[in-house]
Write a structure and sequence with these properties.
- The chain is of the alpha/beta class.
- The protein has 18 helices and 14 strands.
- The radius of gyration is 25 Å and the shape is globular.
- Helix 15 runs parallel beside helix 18 (about 450-470) and helix 16 crosses helix 17.
- It folds into 2 domains: about 5-220, Rossmann fold, CATH 3.40.50; about 225-470, Alpha-Beta Complex (Spore Coat Polysaccharide Biosynthesis Protein SpsA, Chain A), CATH 3.90.550.10.
- Residues about 1-20 have low confidence and may be disordered.
- It has helices spanning about 5-10, 15-20, 20-35, 50-55, 70-75, 110-120, 140-145, 160-170, 190-200, 225-230, 245-255, 275-285, 300-310, 330-340, 360-380, 395-410, 415-425, 450-470; strands at about 40-45, 60-65, 80-85, 95-105, 125-135, 175-180, 210-220, 235-240, 260-265, 290-295, 315-320, 345-350, 390-395, 430-435.
- Helix content is about 40%, strand content about 20%.
Length: about 475
Protein backbone atom coordinates (compact mmCIF):
# COMPACT_ATOMS: atom_id res chain seq x y z
CA UNK A 1 0.00 0.00 0.00
CA UNK A 2 1.41 3.42 -0.93
CA UNK A 3 2.00 6.09 1.67
CA UNK A 4 -0.84 8.16 0.20
CA UNK A 5 -3.33 5.27 0.12
CA UNK A 6 -2.41 4.27 3.65
CA UNK A 7 -3.33 7.69 4.93
CA UNK A 8 -6.52 7.91 2.88
CA UNK A 9 -7.84 5.02 4.98
CA UNK A 10 -7.64 7.17 8.12
CA UNK A 11 -8.43 10.55 6.57
CA UNK A 12 -12.03 10.74 7.86
CA UNK A 13 -10.94 10.03 11.42
CA UNK A 14 -8.93 13.08 12.38
CA UNK A 15 -11.59 15.82 11.93
CA UNK A 16 -13.98 13.72 14.01
CA UNK A 17 -11.49 13.51 16.88
CA UNK A 18 -10.98 17.26 16.78
CA UNK A 19 -14.70 18.01 16.83
CA UNK A 20 -15.34 15.68 19.76
CA UNK A 21 -12.53 17.04 21.90
CA UNK A 22 -11.80 20.66 21.10
CA UNK A 23 -10.41 21.08 24.60
CA UNK A 24 -7.55 18.69 23.82
CA UNK A 25 -6.65 20.24 20.47
CA UNK A 26 -6.98 23.79 21.72
CA UNK A 27 -4.28 23.11 24.31
CA UNK A 28 -1.89 21.89 21.61
CA UNK A 29 -2.67 24.96 19.50
CA UNK A 30 -2.22 27.32 22.43
CA UNK A 31 1.12 25.78 23.41
CA UNK A 32 2.52 25.94 19.87
CA UNK A 33 1.28 29.51 19.49
CA UNK A 34 3.10 30.51 22.70
CA UNK A 35 6.42 30.11 20.89
CA UNK A 36 5.43 31.73 17.60
CA UNK A 37 5.98 35.35 16.65
CA UNK A 38 3.50 37.21 14.44
CA UNK A 39 6.11 37.55 11.69
CA UNK A 40 7.17 33.88 11.71
CA UNK A 41 6.48 31.75 8.66
CA UNK A 42 4.86 28.47 9.75
CA UNK A 43 4.48 25.12 7.99
CA UNK A 44 2.29 22.38 9.46
CA UNK A 45 2.89 18.81 8.25
CA UNK A 46 -0.37 16.84 8.38
CA UNK A 47 -2.59 19.88 8.91
CA UNK A 48 -5.89 18.02 8.62
CA UNK A 49 -8.69 20.55 8.20
CA UNK A 50 -6.53 23.43 9.38
CA UNK A 51 -7.77 24.12 12.91
CA UNK A 52 -4.30 24.35 14.47
CA UNK A 53 -2.96 26.75 11.83
CA UNK A 54 -6.09 28.89 12.14
CA UNK A 55 -5.37 29.30 15.86
CA UNK A 56 -1.80 30.61 15.41
CA UNK A 57 -1.01 34.34 15.48
CA UNK A 58 1.39 34.09 12.52
CA UNK A 59 0.36 35.92 9.35
CA UNK A 60 2.34 33.57 7.06
CA UNK A 61 0.95 30.05 7.39
CA UNK A 62 1.09 26.98 5.15
CA UNK A 63 -0.41 23.55 5.70
CA UNK A 64 0.04 20.27 3.83
CA UNK A 65 -1.90 17.04 4.09
CA UNK A 66 -2.15 13.83 2.10
CA UNK A 67 -5.96 13.98 1.91
CA UNK A 68 -7.59 16.13 -0.81
CA UNK A 69 -10.85 15.99 1.17
CA UNK A 70 -9.24 17.52 4.24
CA UNK A 71 -7.44 20.19 2.24
CA UNK A 72 -10.70 21.12 0.52
CA UNK A 73 -12.37 21.62 3.91
CA UNK A 74 -9.33 23.54 5.20
CA UNK A 75 -9.42 25.93 2.23
CA UNK A 76 -13.12 26.55 2.63
CA UNK A 77 -12.82 27.29 6.35
CA UNK A 78 -9.58 29.31 6.15
CA UNK A 79 -9.25 31.12 2.81
CA UNK A 80 -6.41 33.31 4.10
CA UNK A 81 -4.12 30.30 4.76
CA UNK A 82 -2.23 28.42 2.03
CA UNK A 83 -3.05 24.70 1.93
CA UNK A 84 -1.54 22.11 -0.41
CA UNK A 85 -2.20 18.42 -1.02
CA UNK A 86 1.24 16.93 -0.45
CA UNK A 87 2.77 13.86 1.11
CA UNK A 88 5.17 14.51 4.00
CA UNK A 89 7.94 12.42 2.41
CA UNK A 90 8.01 14.57 -0.72
CA UNK A 91 7.43 18.02 0.80
CA UNK A 92 8.55 20.58 -1.75
CA UNK A 93 8.43 24.37 -1.53
CA UNK A 94 10.56 27.12 -3.00
CA UNK A 95 10.96 28.67 0.45
CA UNK A 96 12.10 27.89 3.94
CA UNK A 97 10.03 28.29 7.11
CA UNK A 98 10.79 29.68 10.57
CA UNK A 99 8.65 27.08 12.37
CA UNK A 100 7.53 23.59 11.31
CA UNK A 101 4.82 21.82 13.33
CA UNK A 102 4.09 18.09 13.25
CA UNK A 103 1.20 17.46 15.63
CA UNK A 104 0.13 13.91 16.52
CA UNK A 105 1.14 12.63 13.09
CA UNK A 106 4.43 10.74 13.59
CA UNK A 107 2.59 7.66 14.87
CA UNK A 108 1.00 7.16 11.46
CA UNK A 109 4.15 7.73 9.37
CA UNK A 110 5.56 4.51 7.88
CA UNK A 111 9.03 6.09 7.76
CA UNK A 112 9.53 8.91 10.27
CA UNK A 113 13.23 9.25 9.44
CA UNK A 114 12.50 9.86 5.75
CA UNK A 115 10.04 12.62 6.66
CA UNK A 116 12.49 14.27 9.06
CA UNK A 117 15.29 14.13 6.50
CA UNK A 118 13.06 15.75 3.88
CA UNK A 119 12.42 18.68 6.25
CA UNK A 120 15.94 19.96 5.54
CA UNK A 121 14.69 21.21 2.17
CA UNK A 122 12.31 23.66 3.90
CA UNK A 123 14.57 24.63 6.82
CA UNK A 124 17.00 27.51 7.18
CA UNK A 125 19.77 27.43 9.77
CA UNK A 126 17.54 28.60 12.63
CA UNK A 127 14.25 26.89 11.79
CA UNK A 128 12.53 25.40 14.84
CA UNK A 129 10.57 22.15 14.58
CA UNK A 130 7.85 21.28 17.10
CA UNK A 131 6.65 17.67 17.26
CA UNK A 132 3.81 16.67 19.57
CA UNK A 133 2.80 13.08 20.19
CA UNK A 134 0.91 10.86 22.63
CA UNK A 135 2.83 9.41 25.56
CA UNK A 136 3.28 5.64 25.25
CA UNK A 137 1.99 5.41 28.82
CA UNK A 138 -1.44 6.40 27.48
CA UNK A 139 -1.66 3.66 24.82
CA UNK A 140 -3.86 1.25 26.85
CA UNK A 141 -6.03 4.12 28.12
CA UNK A 142 -6.71 5.42 24.61
CA UNK A 143 -7.44 1.92 23.32
CA UNK A 144 -9.87 1.43 26.18
CA UNK A 145 -11.46 4.78 25.32
CA UNK A 146 -11.96 3.62 21.73
CA UNK A 147 -13.74 0.47 22.88
CA UNK A 148 -16.10 2.52 25.05
CA UNK A 149 -16.77 4.97 22.22
CA UNK A 150 -15.11 7.87 24.07
CA UNK A 151 -12.53 8.28 21.31
CA UNK A 152 -12.77 7.73 17.57
CA UNK A 153 -11.03 4.52 16.51
CA UNK A 154 -7.79 4.91 14.60
CA UNK A 155 -5.50 2.41 12.83
CA UNK A 156 -2.58 0.79 14.59
CA UNK A 157 0.21 3.31 14.96
CA UNK A 158 3.82 3.60 16.09
CA UNK A 159 3.91 4.31 19.82
CA UNK A 160 7.12 6.30 20.01
CA UNK A 161 8.78 7.40 23.22
CA UNK A 162 10.47 10.78 23.60
CA UNK A 163 13.78 8.96 23.30
CA UNK A 164 12.65 7.38 20.01
CA UNK A 165 11.68 10.75 18.53
CA UNK A 166 14.86 12.41 19.77
CA UNK A 167 16.96 9.64 18.23
CA UNK A 168 15.11 9.91 14.91
CA UNK A 169 15.82 13.63 14.89
CA UNK A 170 19.50 12.95 15.65
CA UNK A 171 20.04 10.45 12.84
CA UNK A 172 18.14 12.75 10.47
CA UNK A 173 20.51 15.66 11.04
CA UNK A 174 18.60 17.62 13.70
CA UNK A 175 19.31 18.47 17.32
CA UNK A 176 16.63 18.36 20.03
CA UNK A 177 17.06 21.26 22.45
CA UNK A 178 13.97 20.89 24.63
CA UNK A 179 11.48 18.19 25.65
CA UNK A 180 8.27 19.01 27.49
CA UNK A 181 5.10 17.28 28.65
CA UNK A 182 1.57 18.67 28.96
CA UNK A 183 -1.98 17.72 29.96
CA UNK A 184 -2.94 15.06 32.48
CA UNK A 185 -6.70 15.42 31.95
CA UNK A 186 -7.44 15.56 28.19
CA UNK A 187 -11.12 16.46 28.54
CA UNK A 188 -12.85 19.43 30.11
CA UNK A 189 -14.27 19.41 33.63
CA UNK A 190 -14.80 22.96 35.01
CA UNK A 191 -12.08 23.93 37.52
CA UNK A 192 -10.83 20.32 37.77
CA UNK A 193 -9.17 20.33 34.33
CA UNK A 194 -7.49 23.68 35.01
CA UNK A 195 -6.08 22.41 38.32
CA UNK A 196 -4.77 19.16 36.83
CA UNK A 197 -3.37 20.62 33.61
CA UNK A 198 -2.16 24.05 34.68
CA UNK A 199 -0.71 23.02 38.04
CA UNK A 200 -0.27 19.28 38.70
CA UNK A 201 0.99 18.59 35.16
CA UNK A 202 3.87 21.03 35.75
CA UNK A 203 5.14 19.31 38.90
CA UNK A 204 8.43 17.35 38.65
CA UNK A 205 7.07 13.80 39.13
CA UNK A 206 3.45 14.17 38.08
CA UNK A 207 4.44 15.60 34.69
CA UNK A 208 5.44 12.08 33.60
CA UNK A 209 1.71 11.22 33.60
CA UNK A 210 0.97 13.76 30.85
CA UNK A 211 -0.60 12.57 27.61
CA UNK A 212 1.28 14.90 25.26
CA UNK A 213 5.03 14.88 24.72
CA UNK A 214 6.79 17.64 22.78
CA UNK A 215 10.19 17.65 21.12
CA UNK A 216 11.73 20.94 19.94
CA UNK A 217 14.50 20.57 17.37
CA UNK A 218 16.59 22.59 14.94
CA UNK A 219 18.96 21.64 12.10
CA UNK A 220 22.50 20.71 13.01
CA UNK A 221 24.76 23.30 11.48
CA UNK A 222 28.02 22.44 9.79
CA UNK A 223 29.84 25.77 9.88
CA UNK A 224 33.60 25.70 9.56
CA UNK A 225 35.78 27.69 11.94
CA UNK A 226 37.09 29.74 9.05
CA UNK A 227 33.59 30.64 7.84
CA UNK A 228 32.33 31.47 11.35
CA UNK A 229 35.36 33.68 12.11
CA UNK A 230 34.33 36.21 9.46
CA UNK A 231 30.60 35.58 9.06
CA UNK A 232 29.12 38.08 11.54
CA UNK A 233 29.80 41.53 12.91
CA UNK A 234 29.39 42.01 16.67
CA UNK A 235 28.35 44.87 18.94
CA UNK A 236 29.55 44.70 22.55
CA UNK A 237 27.50 46.85 24.92
CA UNK A 238 29.32 47.85 28.12
CA UNK A 239 27.05 49.40 30.78
CA UNK A 240 29.20 51.44 33.17
CA UNK A 241 28.24 53.05 36.49
CA UNK A 242 31.12 54.27 38.69
CA UNK A 243 33.62 52.26 36.64
CA UNK A 244 36.07 54.94 35.48
CA UNK A 245 39.09 52.80 36.41
CA UNK A 246 37.97 49.95 34.12
CA UNK A 247 37.11 51.78 30.90
CA UNK A 248 40.53 51.71 29.23
CA UNK A 249 41.08 48.06 30.16
CA UNK A 250 37.69 47.18 28.68
CA UNK A 251 38.90 48.59 25.37
CA UNK A 252 42.39 47.11 25.45
CA UNK A 253 41.42 43.67 26.72
CA UNK A 254 38.43 43.08 24.43
CA UNK A 255 39.56 41.05 21.40
CA UNK A 256 38.35 41.90 17.93
CA UNK A 257 35.77 39.36 16.82
CA UNK A 258 34.06 38.38 13.58
CA UNK A 259 34.23 40.61 10.55
CA UNK A 260 33.85 43.78 12.66
CA UNK A 261 33.75 44.63 16.38
CA UNK A 262 31.80 47.60 17.74
CA UNK A 263 32.20 48.76 21.38
CA UNK A 264 29.29 50.69 22.91
CA UNK A 265 29.77 52.29 26.32
CA UNK A 266 26.62 53.36 28.16
CA UNK A 267 27.19 55.49 31.26
CA UNK A 268 24.48 55.32 33.90
CA UNK A 269 24.12 57.92 36.67
CA UNK A 270 27.70 57.66 37.95
CA UNK A 271 28.91 59.68 40.93
CA UNK A 272 32.52 59.54 39.80
CA UNK A 273 34.16 60.66 36.53
CA UNK A 274 33.10 57.61 34.48
CA UNK A 275 31.44 59.69 31.74
CA UNK A 276 34.47 61.96 31.33
CA UNK A 277 36.78 58.92 31.11
CA UNK A 278 34.54 57.25 28.53
CA UNK A 279 34.68 60.34 26.33
CA UNK A 280 38.44 60.58 26.79
CA UNK A 281 39.04 56.90 25.92
CA UNK A 282 36.70 57.03 22.92
CA UNK A 283 38.77 59.88 21.53
CA UNK A 284 42.08 58.24 22.42
CA UNK A 285 41.30 54.97 20.63
CA UNK A 286 39.13 56.24 17.79
CA UNK A 287 41.71 55.30 15.16
CA UNK A 288 42.05 51.67 16.28
CA UNK A 289 38.58 50.84 17.61
CA UNK A 290 34.97 51.47 16.56
CA UNK A 291 33.59 53.05 19.75
CA UNK A 292 30.16 54.55 20.39
CA UNK A 293 29.12 56.21 23.63
CA UNK A 294 25.83 57.16 25.26
CA UNK A 295 24.30 58.23 28.58
CA UNK A 296 21.19 56.88 30.23
CA UNK A 297 18.25 59.10 30.98
CA UNK A 298 16.62 56.22 32.86
CA UNK A 299 17.93 53.98 35.62
CA UNK A 300 19.15 50.42 35.96
CA UNK A 301 21.28 48.09 33.90
CA UNK A 302 18.27 46.92 31.90
CA UNK A 303 17.66 50.46 30.65
CA UNK A 304 21.36 50.79 29.76
CA UNK A 305 21.37 47.52 27.81
CA UNK A 306 18.31 48.52 25.82
CA UNK A 307 19.86 51.87 24.94
CA UNK A 308 23.08 50.17 23.86
CA UNK A 309 21.29 47.53 21.78
CA UNK A 310 19.27 50.25 20.05
CA UNK A 311 22.53 51.98 19.08
CA UNK A 312 24.14 48.73 17.87
CA UNK A 313 24.71 47.88 14.21
CA UNK A 314 26.30 44.42 14.55
CA UNK A 315 24.70 41.12 13.53
CA UNK A 316 25.32 39.82 17.06
CA UNK A 317 24.59 41.72 20.29
CA UNK A 318 26.67 41.12 23.41
CA UNK A 319 26.77 42.48 26.96
CA UNK A 320 30.04 42.90 28.86
CA UNK A 321 29.90 44.24 32.42
CA UNK A 322 32.31 47.12 32.93
CA UNK A 323 33.61 45.66 36.22
CA UNK A 324 35.47 43.08 34.04
CA UNK A 325 34.83 40.27 36.53
CA UNK A 326 33.93 38.33 33.39
CA UNK A 327 37.27 38.52 31.57
CA UNK A 328 36.89 40.16 28.15
CA UNK A 329 39.41 37.60 26.91
CA UNK A 330 36.62 34.99 27.22
CA UNK A 331 34.37 36.75 24.71
CA UNK A 332 35.58 34.59 21.77
CA UNK A 333 33.92 31.60 23.47
CA UNK A 334 30.57 33.39 23.26
CA UNK A 335 31.07 34.53 19.68
CA UNK A 336 32.15 31.05 18.59
CA UNK A 337 29.13 29.42 20.28
CA UNK A 338 26.58 31.56 18.46
CA UNK A 339 28.46 31.92 15.14
CA UNK A 340 29.01 28.16 14.84
CA UNK A 341 25.33 27.44 15.47
CA UNK A 342 25.71 25.94 18.95
CA UNK A 343 22.83 28.08 20.21
CA UNK A 344 20.66 31.10 19.48
CA UNK A 345 21.02 32.71 22.91
CA UNK A 346 24.30 32.31 24.79
CA UNK A 347 24.39 32.89 28.56
CA UNK A 348 27.51 32.99 30.70
CA UNK A 349 27.81 30.80 33.79
CA UNK A 350 30.02 31.81 36.72
CA UNK A 351 29.16 28.76 38.83
CA UNK A 352 31.14 26.02 37.08
CA UNK A 353 34.83 26.85 37.59
CA UNK A 354 36.45 27.72 40.91
CA UNK A 355 36.15 31.49 41.26
CA UNK A 356 38.58 33.86 42.94
CA UNK A 357 38.04 34.27 46.69
CA UNK A 358 36.40 37.67 46.69
CA UNK A 359 34.66 37.41 43.33
CA UNK A 360 31.30 36.46 44.87
CA UNK A 361 30.15 36.55 48.48
CA UNK A 362 28.83 33.39 50.14
CA UNK A 363 25.20 34.53 50.37
CA UNK A 364 25.31 35.52 46.71
CA UNK A 365 26.50 32.02 45.83
CA UNK A 366 23.64 30.44 47.80
CA UNK A 367 21.16 32.78 46.16
CA UNK A 368 22.47 31.97 42.70
CA UNK A 369 22.23 28.22 43.42
CA UNK A 370 18.58 28.63 44.48
CA UNK A 371 17.67 30.67 41.43
CA UNK A 372 19.53 28.18 39.23
CA UNK A 373 17.23 25.38 40.39
CA UNK A 374 14.14 27.57 40.11
CA UNK A 375 14.91 28.67 36.57
CA UNK A 376 15.90 25.18 35.45
CA UNK A 377 12.40 24.09 36.39
CA UNK A 378 10.73 27.16 34.90
CA UNK A 379 12.57 27.04 31.57
CA UNK A 380 12.52 23.23 31.29
CA UNK A 381 16.27 22.89 30.78
CA UNK A 382 19.38 23.08 32.99
CA UNK A 383 20.08 26.75 33.73
CA UNK A 384 22.99 27.35 36.05
CA UNK A 385 23.43 31.13 36.30
CA UNK A 386 20.69 33.67 35.53
CA UNK A 387 22.64 36.75 36.58
CA UNK A 388 25.92 36.42 34.73
CA UNK A 389 26.24 39.76 32.97
CA UNK A 390 27.41 38.36 29.63
CA UNK A 391 24.63 37.40 27.27
CA UNK A 392 24.69 37.07 23.47
CA UNK A 393 21.83 37.12 20.94
CA UNK A 394 21.41 37.71 17.21
CA UNK A 395 20.16 41.22 16.48
CA UNK A 396 17.26 39.97 14.35
CA UNK A 397 16.13 37.75 17.22
CA UNK A 398 16.39 40.71 19.58
CA UNK A 399 14.13 42.71 17.24
CA UNK A 400 11.55 39.91 17.51
CA UNK A 401 12.03 39.94 21.28
CA UNK A 402 11.14 43.65 21.29
CA UNK A 403 7.89 42.85 19.47
CA UNK A 404 7.13 40.17 22.08
CA UNK A 405 7.98 42.45 25.00
CA UNK A 406 4.34 43.43 25.45
CA UNK A 407 3.70 39.86 26.61
CA UNK A 408 5.96 40.26 29.65
CA UNK A 409 5.82 44.04 29.98
CA UNK A 410 8.43 46.44 31.37
CA UNK A 411 9.23 44.40 34.45
CA UNK A 412 12.99 43.90 34.72
CA UNK A 413 15.43 46.49 36.15
CA UNK A 414 18.44 44.21 35.51
CA UNK A 415 17.84 43.35 31.85
CA UNK A 416 18.85 39.70 32.37
CA UNK A 417 15.32 38.35 32.66
CA UNK A 418 13.94 40.45 29.85
CA UNK A 419 16.42 38.62 27.62
CA UNK A 420 16.12 35.16 29.19
CA UNK A 421 12.32 35.11 29.23
CA UNK A 422 12.21 36.69 25.79
CA UNK A 423 14.58 34.05 24.39
CA UNK A 424 12.42 31.28 25.86
CA UNK A 425 9.24 32.83 24.42
CA UNK A 426 10.91 33.00 20.98
CA UNK A 427 11.78 29.31 21.30
CA UNK A 428 15.50 30.02 20.96
CA UNK A 429 18.02 27.38 21.83
CA UNK A 430 19.65 28.62 25.06
CA UNK A 431 23.24 27.53 25.74
CA UNK A 432 25.48 28.36 28.69
CA UNK A 433 29.20 29.05 28.39
CA UNK A 434 31.21 28.59 31.62
CA UNK A 435 33.56 31.46 32.51
CA UNK A 436 36.27 32.04 35.11
CA UNK A 437 34.80 34.66 37.43
CA UNK A 438 37.37 37.18 38.73
CA UNK A 439 37.65 39.63 41.59
CA UNK A 440 37.11 43.29 40.92
CA UNK A 441 40.29 45.30 40.44
CA UNK A 442 38.52 48.66 40.73
CA UNK A 443 35.42 49.99 42.48
CA UNK A 444 32.62 48.30 44.43
CA UNK A 445 29.72 46.11 43.35
CA UNK A 446 26.44 47.79 42.41
CA UNK A 447 24.47 44.75 43.61
CA UNK A 448 22.58 44.79 46.91
CA UNK A 449 22.21 41.23 48.16
CA UNK A 450 18.91 41.60 49.99
CA UNK A 451 17.16 44.30 47.96
CA UNK A 452 18.06 42.70 44.66
CA UNK A 453 17.42 39.22 46.09
CA UNK A 454 13.81 40.19 46.75
CA UNK A 455 13.53 41.54 43.22
CA UNK A 456 14.85 38.21 41.91
CA UNK A 457 12.24 36.34 43.95
CA UNK A 458 9.58 38.53 42.35
CA UNK A 459 11.04 37.60 38.96
CA UNK A 460 10.58 33.89 39.75
CA UNK A 461 6.94 34.43 40.76
CA UNK A 462 6.42 36.56 37.67
CA UNK A 463 7.92 33.83 35.46
CA UNK A 464 5.74 31.16 37.06
CA UNK A 465 2.66 33.13 36.04
CA UNK A 466 3.84 34.02 32.54
CA UNK A 467 5.78 30.87 31.60
CA UNK A 468 4.78 27.91 33.74
CA UNK A 469 1.21 28.36 34.94
CA UNK A 470 -0.27 30.45 32.15
Amino acid sequence: MSHLNYFETIAPKRPTIRKRNNFYWEDITSYCDYFINENCSVLEIGCGTGELLAGLKSTDKTGIDFSPKMIEIARQNNPDIRFEVMDAEVVNFNQTFDVIIISNVVGFLPDVQAVFEKLHTVCHSRTKIIVSYYSKLWEPILRWGEKLGLKTKSPQQNWLTLEDINNLFYISGFEVFRNTRRMILPFYIPLVSEFFNNFLAKMPLLRHLCINHYSFALPKQLISDKEADTKYSISIVIPARNESGNIENAILRTPKLGKHTELIFIEGNSTDDTWEVIKEMAEKYKDTHDIKIGRQTGKGKGDAVRLGFNMATGDILTILDADLTMPPEDLPKFYNAIARGKGDFINGSRLVYVMEKKAMRFLNILGNKFFSMAFSWLLEQPFKDTLCGTKVIFRDDYEKLIQNRKFFGEFDPFGDFDLIFGAYKLNLKIVEVPICYRERTYGDTNISRFTHGLILLRMVIFAMRKIKFY
